[in-house]
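Troubleshooting: if your tokenizer reports a length mismatch, compare against these two reference records.
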Amino acid sequence: MVPMRTSWIFRSRWLALVWAAGIIWFAVSVAGGSSASSKSGNSSAEQATDVTGAPITPEAEKNFESELNQL
């Protein structure tokens, strides 16, 4: 998985910092960071849709939540 021995990475403090920064960069790129527009409460955010592309109604959300609570 790592192209070099991990004991060699931690011999140098700077190399260890670069390696850790790469791991953090990879995690953020895979998991995705939150954008600034979602934090600001922007009202032009996309509406949630179901698998068919139809918008999710508040009634459908309540039905789904009640089904989850029954599990």
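Reference record two:
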Amino acid sequence: MDEGVRVITVQGEPEAEAFCELLRQNGIECAHRLTEEEDSAFENFGPDGMREILVHPSDLDAARALLNEQ
């Protein structure tokens, strides 16, 4: 995804996949990647680290609203 913006940071790939699936089911394209944040309280929490979920800037408000419902 080019020019994605972060919606939320989660604890690992399984959780990131679950959130992305929810977004996709609601018509919001998303991707996730490892965060580059070093000083997180969750640093080294789990096998693959913290992940940030990215969406297109135009979908940011809708994605936040949807994820806040969960």
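Descriptive notes for reference record two:
- The first helix runs from residue 13 to 25.
- The chain has a mean pLDDT of 86.
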